[in-house]
Every structure is written in C-alpha cells, then in structure tokens.
Amino acid sequence: MKTKFLFFTIVLLLPLTSFCEIGANEIVKNADLKRGLGNVSHSFNVAVTDQDNKKEMFHVSFKDVNNSLTEQTEPERARGRKLLMRDYDIWLFTPNIKKALRISLEQKLTGQVSNGDIARTNYAEDYEAKILGTEKSGNTDAYRLELKAKNNKVTYGRIEYLVAKSDFSPIEATFFAISGKPLKKASFLDFKPIQGMSRSTKMVIQDYLQKEKVSTMIFSNHKTEKFSESLFNKDRLEF
Amino acid sequence: MINKKIPLILIFLTVTSMADAIAESWEHKTRGYLSTKLSPYTRNDSKSLGFLARAQIEHSISFAESLDTVNQLRLQSNSINDDLSVKSRSDEKDYFDLYLGENYFRSKSDNWVFQVGYQEVVWGEAFGFNFADIVNPKDQRQTLFSDAGENRIPLMLINGKTFFSIGDLTGSAQLLYSPEPRFSKNLPVEIFAGDRFPQESLTVIKKKTPGFFKTHELGGKIASSYQGYDIALFGFSYLDRDPYYLLSSASLTNITLREEHNRVKSFGLSFAKTIYDFVLRSDAVITQDKLINYMENSALLSYSSDLFNALISLDTPSYFDYSGVFIFTTSTLKNVRANSFRNKNQQYAIGKITRSLKDDKSLEISYIHELELSGQSIQTILNWPFDGSTDLKFGGEFYFGNDQSNLARLKNCSNVFFSVKRYF
C-alpha cells in the first residue's frame, strides 16, 4: 500500500517538477526582455563609468542574439575600437593594429565589464535555469534562480539570478567562473518604458571580492534598425 | 628637409580647407596624436639619450554613406640611427621625416569595399612578430618593442574587397594592386653585417622608389571564419621590402654600398582558433627568391634562397588579473652560403605576462630568447592612462647575450624610457 502511495505521489509530482523547469527558463526569457529589446534587430548606446568616474561610451548594433557589433566612441584614445560577436566567436579591431583579432568572451572590455556583458546578454539562450526558491528582495517577492552554462563557450559558468515574481524584472545577479569561483555581482536598476515595455537602463557591476571595484552601465537610445549581413563579417571591421 | 616637405603640408591643408568650404553638409572628423619618448641608454658608451617624437593629424570626410576619404599627415623625429651607428657614416644623423600618411578614397556597399590611394593593409593573425604583415614596408629604425602600428609606411594601392556568407561560413576575398613599390627603412647595415667591413667609414646609397607604373605589385587574400576557426590564404608578388647590397666602391678607409631590391613572391596561411578561453594563432609564410648577402674572398656577393617564416602563439585568459601570451617563431633559409649575412635558422621563444592594475593601468613584462645564438631581451612597461586622452608609459628594454646573436647586437639601444602620448 505504501509503495502504491509513493508511486502515485511521484506520478502526480512529475508534471509539477517539469512545470517548474519550463517555468524557470520562461522566467529568464521574460527577464531578458526587461534588459534589452530581445532578439529584435536594434541599436543602442552604452555608457560605462567606473568607481573613479572614468567614462567610456559604446554604440551597439544588435542584429540578433548571435550577431552584434560594439563600437567604442569615447574616450579619444579608444575611439574606433570594435568588438564583433558572431555566435560564440568574438573579434576585436583596434585602429592601430588595423586587423580583427580573435579574442575570448571572458576578456575584460573595460572596468568590471566583460565582452559578453555587452555583446551577449540573452541569458535564456546560453544558460539552463532552475528555480532555487522564492524570497523577498526589499518589498519585492522574487524568484532565486540558478542558471548553468549550456556549454563552456559562454561568459560565465553559473549565474545566481534574482527576478521579481510580479513582472519578471531582473533585480540582481551573481556571476561565477566555470571553476565555481564567484566573480562579480550585478544590480539591474532604473526601469523606463522603452518600445512599449518597462526595461532596465542601468546595470551596476561590482567585483565580488574587491567591492570598491564598480562599473556602472547606462543603456540609452534603443532603436529598432535593420543591418546588412556583411556588417557582422570580421573582415569588414577595418572599414 | 623641412622646406622640401612644405608642399605636402600645403596640399594637405588646401584639400581639407577646400573640402570644408565646398560642402558644409559633408561630415568631417579631425583627430590625431602627439607623442614623445625619452630613453636614456644604459649600455651605450658614446650616446646617452635616445629621443623619438611622433605626430599625426587625420582628417576624414564622409561625402555620403558610401563614399569617404581619409587624409593623414605624419611627422617623426628619431635619434636611433645616429645612436646605433658603429662606423662613421655620411648619413649618420638624427632624422626628421614629414610625410603624407594614409591618403585614400573609399567607396563601399553592403557587399564590397573599394579603396584607392596610400593605404596600410595588415594580414595575419599574430601580433608582435607578424610574418604575414608583408604588404606595407616598415620603418624599422626602432627598437624591437616599438609600436608596430606606427611603423608601417603607406603604400599606393588599388584595394578591392568583397564579403560573402554561406550558412555559418563568412568570409572575404581581397585583391591588391600597387603601381608604386616602396621600401622599408632599416637600422644601420653594420649592426647586422657585424665586422665584415674593415673600413672605418661606410656609406649606403639608398634605392629610390620606382616611379608610377614602372613596376607592378599584385596580390590577394581569401579569408573565412567557420565554427570557431579563422583561416586565410594569401599571396603577393612584390619588390622585397628589405634590400640586398652591392659594392659600389671601396678604399682602405671607406666602403660604399648600394641598396637593391629584387622581386619576391610570398605565399602564406593564417589561422586562429579559440580553445576554451585560450586563443591559438599561427602564421606561416614562404617567400621565394629572396636575395641574401654573403662574403667570399673579401667580395660582397648575394645568393637566392627561399625563406620560410612561421609562428605559433597562445593567448591565455586572465587569472587573478594576470594574462599571458606565449609565442614561438622560426625563420629558415632553404639554402645558405658560408659567411652569409644571416643564419640558416633563427628561432625565438617569447613570453609576455600582463598584470591589470587599478584604474586601467597595467604592468607588462616580456622576455625574448633567441634559441640558436642565445640572445636575450627583457622589457617591462607600466602603462598609465592618465586621462581619456593621455597615455603615459614608463619602462625599460634590455638586450644581452651572445655578441653574435641578433638581440645582443642591439645592446647599445638598451634603455629605460618615459613616453607620453596625447590624443586629440
């Protein structure tokens, strides 16, 4: 009798478990839409300021989750630097080297910001999500999610992600290396209406161990825009 | 020297100001930099202070989305030729060059780019030792650790490039034609010729650049990226950027050499691949019919040989703010004669560690080991971005080891340095 009871309990719980797993990935998909325009061809600007108020400006052309081009516009010494991302491949072009060099996603772009933080921001594409639980973040009920890298090509091995229950707004994320070492923490702030949806326009990234190391990314000027395929060809970066 | 260059400045200023006047609607951008480097020598008995100054002004005009032009004016003053000359030379002096840099028109569409004018074209995957960077001549009157990006001499080129995409594969095909070859500017010949010339003074007659359409250079490259691999194949038929020497005259006290450049053909392959967070790069180039000098019974002669250059490098990811690059290079002559001006094999192992510091500062330490002849070099640099437009560098570079090695031959330019570069 006990065995039958256990069997029926498991059978009844199975769909619930699978609902939770689907739910976790859906939550991440919805949260991604709160941090950008999603998988829509568009452009936007990013201003990155560090703890000493040093500012760097970037213009991002985002064709889809697998194709983006980031061009640095400030400061003067770095003007014309370009970062191209195609799938998990990434190339850096600098005006003095005059050729596109393959680099890794993990390499830092500036301050606490890795290349992948600007060029590859759709977590749903790169990570498998699991709900760890629910908790209060200030006055907000939130899901605590664990995102595990689907492959070892992505920027981080694991992310712990806090997302608002009510509207899936991202609140906070802690990023871990593939080795498991905590790297940095990010907060998602300043939600503003962009293209018909409330989206975060500010991301504050703090080094996990050296807390004084902070970079603030401000996203602005989101525009839907069509791009030619060749814009995302690494051999075109020099032109 | 300055007076001869004044027409260049006038052309540059006239073209840019005319452009300003004709169409205010065109989009203009002016940018550039000024830099200077002071380098007290640590092992040079005759000279104590090296000096290098550079400036570049670039004016670009965008006439329309598909048509633009770039005009650069460059200035360079360098004391290294004088500082490193061992023998008394008629051309021994600090040099001051004022010249037009890149100056070209560009037309482009979604699928192709076409450029005409003086340009720099860079091939290859590696940096530092860049064997595939064969198109432009270089100003090699620098120390080994100088900025390669500032040493290229623009070449008159008709440069067409088309882009393609087939599924996951993207790529490009490029064709180059130059009607006016140019040559590299090199350090004093006696540094590498050693003590082969007993005369006290040495004169080198430089080869002048052939006039327009007197000779032709032609080349091309096909490059592709597919599933994490970058592969390029390239070829170029050109006048050797480096000279071989003919004896012009000789006396007991003076020898006069004449530079010549023969036609060579280079074919090569470049490759890069990301492996986890490491990046593996490789360039391999075969240059056919290179002429190399040698001495036979006190006569200066030359022989032809194919030259194979190859490089493999690995960039590491950052660990606790440290990152590294490790490079192995090999350069081999197919044939070699006794008393040749270069060895059959030249191999170098290079390691560079970079430590990221606060406020975007970084500390770099590089070590080069010349394997066959035991030459060595160490360089340290503290990169200090002072503000958004100013870079400071402090460091030192030191050459030592076996006196016959290529690295130890540069020991007289071992130095500590301070440099400042201001962008505008």
Q: What report would you give on this structure?
A:
The complex is a heterodimer of chains A (239) and B (424). Chain A has 239 residues and is of the alpha+beta class. About 3% of the residues of chain A have low confidence. Chain A is globular, with a radius of gyration of 20 Å. In chain A, a hairpin with a 4-residue loop joins strand 1 and strand 2. The termini of chain A are far apart. Chain A is built from three helices and 15 strands. Chain B is mainly β. Chain B is built from three helices and 22 strands. In chain B, the strands form two sheets. Chain B has an 18-stranded antiparallel beta barrel. The longest helix of chain B has 21 residues. At the A-B interface, strand 6 of A face strand 7, strand 8, strand 14 and strand 15 of B.
How would you sum up the global shape of chain B? globular
Radius of gyration of chain A: 20 Å
Record field, number of beta strands of chain B: 22
> Structural class from helices and strands of chain A?
alpha+beta
What sequence of helices (H) and strands (E) makes up the elements of chain A?
A: HEEEEEEEEHHEEEEEEE
- What percent strand of chain A? over 45%
**In percent, how helical is the residue content of chain B?**
under 10%
How many DSSP E strands of chain A? Answer: 15
How many strands, what sense, and barrel or not for the largest sheet of chain A?
A: 13 strands, antiparallel
Specify the oligomeric state.
heterodimer
Largest sheet report of chain B: 18 strands, antiparallel, barrel
- Our count of helices of chain A gives 3
- The H/E string of chain B reads HEEEHEEEEEHEEEEEEEEEEEEEE
State the shape of chain A: globular
Report low-confidence residues of chain B grouped into runs of 5 or more. none
**Alpha-beta classification of chain B:** mainly beta
